[in-house]
Design a protein that fits this description.
Length: about 325
């Protein structure tokens, strides 16, 4: 009754922003991401007779917050029909809660390890649906390479799952440089921010009206390995999402001066014929999309910017999987 899983974070190229059901975590729109080799979480789960679930994340005891880890473990226990409690130890190799998709890799690794420890055998699609109920974007980290999370139509969520578009070997030269400007916990959570956006942004419906076109074009661009097309769609999609955040009441502005500095630097790089595009999530950090051949030059230019603390280089990675080496 013990198992360990690893999962990579994922960064959306077409963003998930807003829920149509918060109970089941059903999105308002579909999304597409790259699973990132370079930002991973490893989680060991063991069931025993201990009186309650215990969860340690990066050497700290997990305190209850809006992401209900204990409730997610209970959900899996109910499915498996077991009454024991879990000891969970989890470690990530990148800063948590800084808009770097730690909840995606975290919930994907937790779900895969907990199911294995509980003896629950699920298909990848079933795992994706189950993981989604812990944290939406995490359902994409079950798969590797380039992944689409289907919005689905049904109220029970049975058709809202992620699916691989292309595996990591389809485009091995694709790179993402996560540029860290601040590793502190963010002021407004993604979950709170998206609920507030759906409730108060006057342009939210306009955002939704553009997403299907982005999804269709992004899928084509990935299939054709058309870097400029992927970069252009991803960058504009992120700006549209941030436009809805900024025009929410009260306004949510995740950007800090260093964020703008990187945005302008990336645009300047394009002026100089360096193919680089940016995307941003619910935080101040910027992810720079590029190709292997330009990594050295782009990293050098980013390192020279005042507000940049460090960078993490990612390429398309594997989906979540069971590993043999436990954390305890
Ligand atoms: C994404 N984000 O597609 C978008 C872009 C942030 C901005 O998914 O409430 O942690 O657990 O479903 O998945 C972050 O939100 O939120 C996110 P819940 P989640 O990657």
């Amino acid at each position: 009754m013990k198992a360990t899983a690893t999962a990579n974070a994922n960064i959306a190229l077409v963003k998930y922003w807003g829920k149509r059901s918060s109970d089941r975590i059903l999105p308002q729109n579909g999304s597409i991401s790259m699973t990132c080799d370079g930002m991973a979480t490893k989680t060991t789960v063991e069931f025993s007779e201990q009186p309650e679930h215990t969860v340690m994340i990066n050497d700290e005891e997990f305190k209850k917050d809006e992401k209900d880890i204990h409730g997610h473990i209970d959900r899996i226990c109910r499915m498996a029909g077991i009454r024991k409690h879990a000891k969970v130890v989890s470690e990530s190799n990148f800063p948590v809660a800084a808009g770097l998709a730690s909840s995606a890799s975290g919930f994907a690794a937790l779900t895969v390890a907990t199911c294995a420890a509980a003896g629950l055998k699920l298909s990848p699609r079933e795992l994706s649906i189950l993981t989604r109920q812990g944290s939406g974007s995490a359902c994409r980290s079950i798969f590797g390479g380039f992944v689409e999370w289907h919005r689905g139509q049904r109220d029970d969520g049975s058709d809202s799952y992620a699916e691989e578009i292309k595996d990591k070997n389809h485009w091995p030269e694709f790179r993402m440089i996560a540029t860290i400007v601040e590793s502190k916990k963010k002021p407004v959570s993604s979950r709170g921010g998206m609920a507030q956006t759906v409730a108060t942004c006057p342009y939210y419906k306009d955002w939704l009206a553009t997403v299907d076109e982005d999804l269709k074009n992004m899928k084509e661009a990935i299939e054709e390995r058309d870097f400029e097309k992927v970069g252009g769609i991803a960058e504009f999609n992120a700006l549209k999402m941030h436009a809805t955040m900024i025009t929410t009441k009260p306004s949510i502005i995740y950007w800090i001066p260093a964020t703008m500095e990187i945005i302008h630097a990336v645009r300047q790089m394009r002026e100089e014929e360096i193919q680089a595009y940016f995307t941003m999530d619910a935080g101040p950090n910027v992810k720079v999309l590029c190709q292997e051949r330009d990594v050295k030059e782009i990293s050098m230019q980013l390192a020279e910017l005042e507000g940049v603390a460090n960078t993490i280089l990612c390429k398309p990675g594997d989906g979540a999987k069971i590993v043999s080496e436990h954390l305890f």
